[in-house]
TrEMBL record:
SUPFAM superfamilies given in the database record: Thioredoxin-like
Pfam families (UniProt xref): Thioredoxin
Key words of the record: Disulfide bond, Electron transport, Redox-active center, Transport
CDD domains with a match to the protein in the record: TRX_family
Organism: Streptomyces glaucosporus
Bilayer-crossing regions: none
Entry keyword annotation includes Electron transport: yes
Gene name per UniProt: trxA_2
Segments forming domain Thioredoxin: 1-105
Protein name (database record): Thioredoxin
Classification via Gene3D superfamilies: Glutaredoxin
Entry similarity comment: Belongs to the thioredoxin family.
Length: 122
């Protein structure tokens, strides 16, 4: 599966309607974004069970602001609708593969329990 462009209109539905969603926040003028794009595209082709979304921060400024994007590229990973990873910077292929493996191996019951514990402690 290749990457899909995400907008404010379909972002939440995509994130909540799929098991694993990676999102690349990028802009056409951003050099590191252009270097990361082929790495991200290859990973999308190698992992057909994951949705690889891309958000153009120029076209989707409100969505980028809502996601607290302050640096691009920024990669976010969602699992079962929950944000489980967010990091600015272009990742080399091996690091992206490590993120994908880590997200796949997450114990989501443990993640939800940790989030609940954090919320109850606030």
């Amino acid at each position: 599966m290749s990457t899909v462009a995400l907008t404010a209109a379909d972002f939440e539905k995509t994130v909540t309607g799929n098991d694993i969603v990676l999102v690349d926040f990028w802009a056409s003028w951003c050099g590191p974004c252009r270097m990361f794009a082929p790495v991200y595209e290859r990973a999308s082709e190698a992992n057909a069970d994951i949705v690889f979304g891309k958000v153009d921060t120029e076209a989707e400024q409100a969505l980028a602001a809502a996601a607290n994007i302050t640096s691009i590229p920024t990669l976010m990973a969602f699992r079962e609708g929950l944000l489980v990873f967010a990091q600015p910077g272009a990742l080399p292929p091996q690091a992206l593969d490590q993120v994908i493996t880590a997200v796949r191996e997450l114990d989501m019951d443990e993640v939800r329990a940790s989030i609940a514990a954090q919320k109850s402690g606030e």
